[in-house]
Amino acid sequence: MSSSRKHHLKSLMLSIAKDLLEEEEREREEERSQYMAENCPAVSMPRSLQELQEVCREIHHKIDVIDEERYDLEMKVNKSNKEIDDLKIKVQDLMGKFKKPVLRKVRMSADAMLKALLGSKHTVNMELRANLKQVKKEVKEEDKELRDVGDWRKNIEDKSGMDGRKKMFEAEA
Fold this sequence. Notes:
This protein has 6 helices and no strands. By secondary structure, it is mainly alpha-helical.
């Protein structure tokens, strides 16, 4: 299709659309004028004070009726909105789709992280001391003697005075 043909078709479509919009606008204007003629009759200016008060009472009565209708409709809308929200929640529950909450950073040890990742399979312990072998310590005789010496105050009391010095010399000889 040539560009001139495309341009011609486009201009035809735009002119048809413009005509349709104008027609819709005229229809809306006619509907508005019909509604106003039915619901809002022309105001006749009263000649006396009593007639003016009567007109005011009628207008107030109509305002009250319209406010009641508006309130009723507003309550219906609120009720239906609540029902819609409840049904949305039920649908989410049934579908099992929930919004995931934003996760925060949590400090955890390597053991806790492995346990969380591996679950019950977690047997590796990151504590290095737990993997060391237990070695039995051989006790030397010298260490035994040092332990057997006991309380140092006792030894000083034994060595104090002439008896203590005598024992020391006898022990050396």
